[in-house]
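This week, study the protein below.
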Amino acid sequence: MKFEDCKPLVELTRGPVVESIHIGAVAIVDPHGNLVARVGNPQMVANLRSSSKPFQTLPLVESGGAEMLGLTDREISLTCASHSGTDDHVFVLRGMHAKIGVTEADLLCGIHPISHKPTLEAMRARGEEVTPARHNCSGKHTGMLAQARSRGLPIADYINPTHPIQQTIIRTFAEMCDLAVEDVQIGIDGCSAPTFAVPLANAALAFARLADPSGLPEPRRSALRRIWRAMTTHPDMVAGPGEFDTVLMEVAAGVIACKGGAEGYRGFAIAPASDGSRPALGITYKVADGDLNGRARPLIAVEILRQLGILSPAQMENLKPYDTSPVQNWRKIEVGVMRPAFRLERS
């Protein structure tokens, strides 16, 4: 990522002065790889981080492994998730473990504090410690264990980039992005599994194909349709109560599949218009400073949807908590505003 690849995406004012600016880049692509719109450089290379999860679970569904193990759509949605560690998420996860024949001890994602405060307070009240099952990537890791089990492969080192399931995942992701495997740059994510860095436009192509895989051969076409159905039917599994990905998919009601990633990344897929007036779209963007407090990414998504005219006025109203908003001081006095700072450049 380079400074010159970026343009202003969000700005915060204080009085008459623009005090802070989040810069980054946006790419919007159709399922044929045509660039529809952009902000900044759509060829900017960035790590998808957790935004890659739908494509990391793709080999499990495409190979027939999910069907062989009897995984439901709700469980497949959890394999695509950065979940908030609620009891519902853990309940679904443990059901998957029973089907797969693994335990929580097999997870190599580690432990981190959970983000859902009501769950955390309830756990403290009953003296329950945080374990790997509460990790926001435990669903993805369980999906990787399922891939290993369904192929009769060892599970002890399933996150190693040289493990056969990781090699399959990398190859599948590269194909979805229309790239050679060697063009996918590999890093290690916070959960210790491989993460992928590719140009924004190529990642957007993968999301466009998730929304409309009709140009792809079987069994990939059907596998992507099942992942789409799982995520959009069970958005509560993908993130959690009040989390943006879940809220957006609930509001969009089957039109959008959304997956955020760490360090300011988000990707989402938009189904084609029912009247044929608009193709499916894949959208990716990266906030250059990492957006560590998460204030910029939802606003960017809402503004992109507004400029594209994807959702109805009523749906946009339901996203108002994530839209342009006042900046308040500690006494709740309005001192400025947080607002979008970009216009999509149409191709």
